[in-house]
Design a protein that fits this description.
Elements (H helix, E strand, L loop, with lengths): L20 H9 L10 H21 L13 H8 L3 H7 L7 E4 L2 H8 L9 H18 L2 E4 L4 H16 L5
Parallel strand pairs: 1-2
């Protein structure tokens, strides 16, 4: 969805990316304020962008039986607004189900670092884990223990999905 409309193309820096995550990561890596350029206007513009994306999904994909989003908008809210993210997440339209893969931050970090370019600063990942743990109960996330083996995690998600949606027709 972010590839369809990049609201942060306003800067001319070659370091900007398609996501506000880069600025948040840079803030943590620099050891300073995690998002110095964050303003209420920028956070509200990001929230409006999320609403427009949600409207797009509801309008153009309404006939689809299933729409799967990686992280829905919850990570985006954290990246654009940090401390306000929980407020944005609680006020945003909710999907039918969110599977939350929870594990200790050090385990998540070890798995992320196995991915090419997957090095996120410790402070950032710790903050994201705290954020998800804070909003998950309020938003009804289905918590999955991600410290289990990959096959067990996959099976848990699949079994939960089958209980909710029933078997798929082939």
């Amino acid at each position: 969805m972010f590839l369809l409309f990049d609201p942060w193309k306003l800067g001319s820096s070659s370091q900007r990316g398609l996501s506000p995550r880069r600025a948040r990561l840079h803030g943590f890596a620099g050891g300073g304020n995690a998002y110095r350029s964050k303003t209420a206007l920028r956070a509200l513009a990001g929230y409006l962008y999320a609403i427009l994306c949600y409207a797009y999904l509801r309008t153009f994909l309404r006939k689809e039986e299933y729409v799967v989003c990686d992280r829905y908008f919850y990570q985006y809210f954290y990246d654009i607004s940090g401390p306000w993210a929980a407020t944005f997440a609680r006020s945003f339209p909710r999907p039918d189900v969110v599977y939350w893969l929870d594990a200790p931050a050090n385990l998540l970090r070890s798995r992320i670092e196995k991915i090419p370019n997957g090095h996120e600063p410790r402070e950032y990942l710790d903050a994201v884990v705290r954020y998800y743990r804070a909003v998950a109960p309020d938003l009804g996330f289905v918590q999955i223990d991600a410290s289990a083996a990959a096959g067990a995690v996959e099976e848990t998600i699949w079994n939960n999905l089958m209980r909710r949606a029933g078997p798929f027709e082939t």
